[in-house]
Amino acid sequence: MLNELTQFIEAIDTTHLVLLKIGLLAVLVMLAQWLTAKWMQNFAAGQEQLDVELLHSARRPLLAGLWLLGVSWVNDVLVSSVPSWSNDLPSQLREPVLVILIAWFLIRLITVLQAIVLHPAGNRLAWDASTAEAMGKVLKVVVVISAVLILMQLFGLSVSGVLAFGGVGGIAVGFAAKDMLANFFGGLMIYMDRQFSVGDWIRSPDKEIEGTVEHIGWRVTRIRTFDMRPLYVPNATFTSISVENPSRMSNRRFYEIFGLRYADQASVEAIVSDVKAMLMAHEAIDTNRTLMVNLDQFNNHSLDFFVYCFTKTTAWAEFHVIKQELLKTIADIVESHGAEFAFPTQSLHIHQQQAVQVEHG
To answer: Among 235, 250, 283, 328, which is disulfide-ready with 187 (CB 3.0 to 4.6 Å)?
Structure first.
């Protein structure tokens, strides 16, 4: 039996032997891919979220690496078995492609980790969206730059020479791209200072900027205005203007002035007292903040008193529901005291002169 197998192998010519080896290698690579995918699927069951995401990040780069290994082995078989085959390119590309696959894996890993810190499992606190996005971008840039430098070394390029050229040429590039650099560092300052983040409502008294932040990029920030139009603001703009962030307010202010008739002067003190008592007892009013109800001034046609307080809610729609309720209640208090709100009036005094009869002589 062994002699027959030996005679069969010896009878196979070089071409068929090479094809047989390549076929076996292809089968082995596909089998390794299938076993790896099956193992990763079984291992992921019942594991922590971080472990599952780690396997998910490594799956495609790992399978691509197996194909790279198979192609490299096939090339080795051809080089050793076929004298006319001298293409050693796959072997030369083995290390560079491996670097690219590792960089690919790290970038995928950073992406899934960014999603995990934004939506953590259990009782862990979620990261701020802007911070997570900034960290993800910085880490991806570091991975790409590191991969490029390693590839340059593998291809025989001088990294120190390129860095030296970058130091000299960086001056010219800096002048040519100063606006881009200003926007880049402006975006970096937004991430560091955290003056606003994605989802915040911001506005600037210095420029016509108001809306909800949708995206903070390295060059521009996209803001959705209240008429649903996108507004793209260069990041460098935020380094030279004042930015108000109403989304981070702790309370909303209720401030209104009411005018009573001069004929209701006797009821002013009681009305002011009742309005203040109503606010102190109202569950939507934050009594730990400033709360004032006082006669303010003698106006041309009215006795003005003001109401100054803060609601507990900061939600825009809910605040206006509370405001409507307060205005209606204050009107009821004024009416209960027999008083009325004043409106502009004018008094016209007509002076009547007595007719004088003149006698002519």
So the answer is: 235
Given this model, what pLDDT does residue 304 score? 95
State the DSSP string of 94-146. Answer: HHHHHHHHHHHHHHHHHHHHHHHHHS-STTPPPPPHHHHHHHHHHHHHHHHHH
**pTM for the model:** 0.55
Kindly state the DSSP code that residue 341 receives in the 8-state scheme.
Answer: B
Token pair for 37: 């995918």
Question: What does the pLDDT look like over 336-345, one tens digit per residue?
Answer: 999 999 988 7
Q: Which domain holds residue 243?
A: 176-247
For residue 359, is it within any domain? no
Token output for 148: 């490029």
Same-domain status, 25 and 50: yes
The set of residues, in sequence order, having a beta carbon less than 8 Å from that of 146 and lying 6+ positions away, is 103
Let me know: does 40 contact 47? Beta carbons within 8 Å. Answer: no
Domain count, the chain: 3
226 & 256 share domain: no
| Predicted pLDDT of residue 277 | 96
Q: Looking at the domain assignment, is residue 284 inside a domain? A: yes
Residues 328 and 197 in one domain: no
pLDDT band of 361, cuts 50, 70, 90: very low
Same domain, 42 and 123: yes
126 vs 282, more confident: 282
Chain segment 7-26, per-residue pLDDT in tens: 544 444 455 555 555 566 66
Sign of CA pseudo-dihedral 159, 161, 162, 163: positive
Helices and strands, number each (H, E), in the chain: 10, 7
Q: Note whether 124 and 96 are same-domain residues.
A: yes
Q: Can you tell me whether residue 86 is helix, strand or coil? A: coil
Task: Give residue for tokens 């070394």.
Answer: 153
Q: Which residues contact 10 (CB under 8 A, 6 or more apart)?
A: none
77 and 202 share one domain: no
Instruction: Indicate whether 61 and 138 sit together in one domain.
Output: yes
Please indicate, yes or no, whether residues 206 and 328 belong to a single structural domain of this protein: no
Could you give the CA distance from residue 325 to residue 328 in angstroms, rounded to a whole number? 5
